[in-house]
Amino acid sequence: MARKKIREYDAKRLLAWHLKRLKGIHIPVQVAQVVDGGPSLAQLAKPTVDTEDHVTESVSETPVLQNGFGDHLFEEWNKDKSWLMESKLVVKPDMLFGKRGKSNLVKLNLNLDEASEIIESLLGSSLEVEGIKGRVTHFIVEPFVEHDAEYYFSVQSCREGNLVSFGCCGGVEIEQNWDKVKQVTIPAGEDPTGLDTILANQDLSFQVREQLEQFIKGCYLVFEDLDMTLLEMNPLTLNDRNHVIPLDMRCELDTYAMFKNQKKWLDIEFPESWGAQFTDEEHFIRSLDEKSGASLKLSLIHPKGHIWTMVAGGGASVIYADTVVDLGMGDELANYAEYSGNPKEEETYLFARTILDLATRYPDGKKRALLVGGGIANFTDIAATFAGIIQALKDFHGKLQVAKLKVFVRRGGPNYETGLRLMEELGEELDIPIEVYGPDSNMTCIVQKAIDWIRD
């Protein structure tokens, strides 16, 4: 599972669309997104005109879906923004950070001009939130909803299944009122009959209880159908027509399920976390990872460091990094890199090339080490996995010598003997130092050997 946050703008559109598709439930969600470098709020508010110069009518409800997911209908439904000129508005940054209300970043009850002014004053600017600085590039704009009651609702993946939470105490002080939140765990793969108890003993009128009960059951269906890992609404309320409306919403999706959900997820994006800045190489590996059925991860830590890693397995990669730090060489740890899920040879080759390019970029006369580590694989053909790495090492013949880079290999699993032999032969062919170790050696033994190498 790979949990990835999505913007509130996308979360609300997905929820409204798929509640209608799966359960026939209409929630009056209207959202607009203002992006740095894109159309202004005033431009979005202009009526949409079709090819025959007729003004498109406002769509007050999500369209009825007959077959499939109706992504073309979704696009049409989402175009009309005439409500921006007719409603009082709510404006807030849509940048994946929380506590926007407590940070005075949620602006309420605005007209179009006031909302535009606030957005223009902050869009593209630098902002510090909870000690992290970042650049504001996205805003979400919605109609302001008059309300009295505020509720809290969430569904979250956990080890036992899905944890569902509800409380009549939603809003910015939810953490102080968490003892009033009722929770129930729905075991994985079982019918969500436990949802019937989530509203028990809550101070709700019959009509409100009935609306919330149907809404919660619908949200649970959407959560499972779209492979969400988190769906949180704080607060949640009902409007004057007794429709349930999420006022503030968070959502995470399991990106490992992208292969089966591309149509359902429609046009959403997976932004980086607030304040994150990535190099071209990190962006490249991320794009490679998104297109692959395997896992490919790269994070630069100290680009001029002398200990580089390229480790098979998510757990093993963390252990190697921790061991480097535990042995007092954290300031020399250049990167975190992990590949798993049996990547194709071409993917492994591109992954290794990227790391080798970084590892040889700043030769300074000092020795450096590359840890090609991992545990004992169950099914992965080690020799086949090494083929891409070997080709990448051949490409950097010459640069490896200039950078004084030594390769330390530790691996076990199917065909590991052939893989280690090929690595040893490569060292002789390229005249670079390569040490290899099999499953009879401790998994992290090469860490101390690498440290001894760069200290010598």
UniProtKB/TrEMBL annotation:
UniProt-listed GO biological process terms: lipid metabolic process; succinyl-CoA metabolic process; tricarboxylic acid cycle
Domain ATP-citrate synthase ATP-grasp, first and last residues per copy: 2-265
Gene Ontology molecular function terms on file: ATP binding; ATP citrate synthase activity; succinate-CoA ligase (ADP-forming) activity
Protein name from the UniProt record: ATP citrate synthase
Pfam families for this protein: Citrate_bind, Citrate_synth_N
Organism the protein comes from: Galdieria partita
Top-level taxonomic group: Eukaryota
Cellular component annotations (GO), alphabetically ordered: succinate-CoA ligase complex
SUPFAM superfamilies reported in the protein's UniProt record: Glutathione synthetase ATP-binding domain-like (SSF56059), Succinyl-CoA synthetase domains (SSF52210)
Catalytic activity: oxaloacetate + acetyl-CoA + ADP + phosphate = citrate + ATP + CoA
Coiled coil spans: none
Keywords from the named record: Acyltransferase, ATP-binding, Cytoplasm, Lipid biosynthesis, Lipid metabolism, Nucleotide-binding, Transferase
